[in-house]
Amino acid sequence: MQKAIDRLANRAISSKDVSPDGALTVPRSFGVYELPHAAPEVRRFRLGNYPVRLSELEREFGACKLLYLFRERKDAVVMASMLNGNEPK
């Protein structure tokens, strides 16, 4: 699965590749975020619109880290799933 993660990571973009547009970005972007050491029943890797979801997770968990930023939501969904130990769909 590590090779699949690496291939998908190559499609990630930098936060410098997007510009703020209100609460979202242009072009629209989707992040994969890592929560701080969470309880075992909590999914450690989350996804959502950047930067809105980042702010939500920071409020809810106190902190989180942007790991990957994608232009395609489907890429963020697959990456978060793989990082959480699930097979990609």
Describe the structure.
It is a single chain. The protein is of the alpha+beta class and 89 residues long. The chain has one domain. Strands 4-3-5 form a three-stranded antiparallel beta sheet, sandwiched between helices. A two-stranded antiparallel sheet has the order 1-2. A hairpin with a 2-residue loop joins strand 1 and strand 2. 24% of the residues are buried.
Regarding quaternary structure, how should these chains be classified? single chain
* Weakly predicted, low-confidence segments: none
* Overall number of structural domains: 1
Shape: flat
Describe the main β-sheet briefly. Answer: 3 strands, antiparallel
Query: Would you count the extended β strands for me?
Result: 5
Task: Briefly note the structural class of the backbone.
Answer: alpha+beta
Helix fraction by DSSP (H/I, runs of at least 4):
25-40%
Rounded radius of gyration (Å): 13 Å
Q: Mean of the pLDDT scores?
A: 92
What's the number of helices?
A: 3
Strand percentage:
15-25%
Order of helices and strands: HEEEEHEH
Q: Strands of the largest sheet, in order across it?
A: 4-3-5
